[in-house]
């Protein structure tokens, strides 16, 4: 029996065209029957695919039909079976977010890239930051803050001047977004098993929203973030173009 492939594509025209051509060449099976899932789109679509396929054993191989494509491989129509056979697998453990809003409702979500807190009004947010139950910062005044995985460290975290993390570093990045006080605080590197808690101060006056890979919760009171070792996202990359190489290359561009 040949390799069973499930093709998934974003709604953009170039991804849909790729979907039609690749399914014509290589066939297609439902994701639950697939040996491998091929995602056609950009990084955002790849994240959605990984979230939706979290309970499926098949790894995901992305081909870039978007813009940046940090999590994707180069798009080529020829030789796909050989590329899949040679691909290198990376395992990513996502972040688990637990957030309680001001109504007392608890929300849970997973984030492959980052969990971010963002001010939702005209005034800066005021956050108390705790790590593993110990208060580390009584007050962080900022536009927001985020906790990033190594896989997500070149995304929003990097735009907020956070560090790029090698995949094998076994750490998380805690990064402030436009910090006002302490003005020169550069963030922190934490063990990957750390539990980070943000308490929103003056939540009625300075509303804050939480976002886990675009899953948003409004008017939060507190958020707890930790790595979920039980969830394993399997991503395939062409040899020499895995996440480790991409993270290193990004720092020299």
TrEMBL record:
InterPro entries named among the record's database cross-references: ATP-NAD_kinase_N (IPR017438), ATP-NAD_kinase_PpnK-typ_C (IPR017437), NAD/diacylglycerol_kinase_sf (IPR016064), NADK (IPR002504)
Pfam families, sorted: NAD_kinase (PF01513), NAD_kinase_C (PF20143)
EC number(s) stated in the UniProt entry for this protein: 2.7.1.23
GO biological process, one term: NAD+ metabolic process
Annotated positions binding NAD(+): 43-44, 48, 113-114, 143, 151, 154-159, 178
Keywords on record: ATP-binding, Cytoplasm, Kinase, NAD, NADP, Nucleotide-binding, Transferase
GO molecular function, one term: NAD+ kinase activity
Broad class of enzyme this protein falls into: transferase
Subcellular location: Cytoplasm
A cellular component annotation (GO) from this entry: cytoplasm
Presence of keyword Kinase: yes
Reaction it catalyzes: NAD(+) + ATP = ADP + NADP(+) + H(+)
The protein's required cofactors: a divalent metal cation
Active site residues according to the UniProt entry: 43
Record's function text: Involved in the regulation of the intracellular balance of NAD and NADP, and is a key enzyme in the biosynthesis of NADP. Catalyzes specifically the phosphorylation on 2'-hydroxyl of the adenosine moiety of NAD to yield NADP.
Family: Belongs to the NAD kinase family.
Protein name: NAD kinase
Gene: nadK
């Amino acid at each position: 029996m040949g390799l069973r492939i499930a093709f998934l594509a974003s709604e953009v025209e170039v991804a849909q065209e790729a979907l039609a051509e690749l399914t014509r060449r290589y066939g297609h099976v439902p994701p639950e029957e697939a040996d491998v899932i091929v995602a056609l789109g950009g990084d955002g679509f790849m994240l959605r695919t990984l979230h939706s396929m979290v309970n499926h054993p098949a790894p995901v191989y992305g081909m870039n039909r978007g813009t940046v494509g940090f999590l994707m491989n180069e798009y080529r129509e020829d030789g796909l079976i050989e590329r899949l056979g040679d691909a290198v697998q990376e395992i990513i453990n996502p972040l688990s977010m637990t957030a309680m809003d001001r109504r007392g409702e608890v929300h849970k979500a997973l984030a492959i890239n980052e969990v971010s807190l963002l001010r939702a009004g005209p005034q800066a947010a005021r956050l108390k930051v705790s790590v593993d139950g110990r208060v580390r910062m009584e007050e962080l005044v900022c536009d927001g803050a985020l906790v990033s995985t190594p896989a997500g460290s070149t995304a929003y975290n990097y735009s907020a001047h956070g560090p790029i993390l090698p995949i094998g570093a076994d750490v998380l990045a805690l990064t402030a977004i436009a910090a006002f006080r302490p003005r020169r605080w550069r963030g922190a590197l934490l063990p990957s098993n750390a539990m980070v808690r943000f308490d929103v101060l003056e939540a009625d006056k300075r509303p804050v929203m939480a976002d886990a890979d675009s899953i948003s919760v409004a008017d939060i009171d507190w958020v707890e973030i930790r790595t979920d070792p039980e969830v394993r996202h399997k991503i395939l990359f062409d040899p020499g173009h895995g996440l480790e190489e991409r993270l290193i290359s990004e720092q020299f561009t």
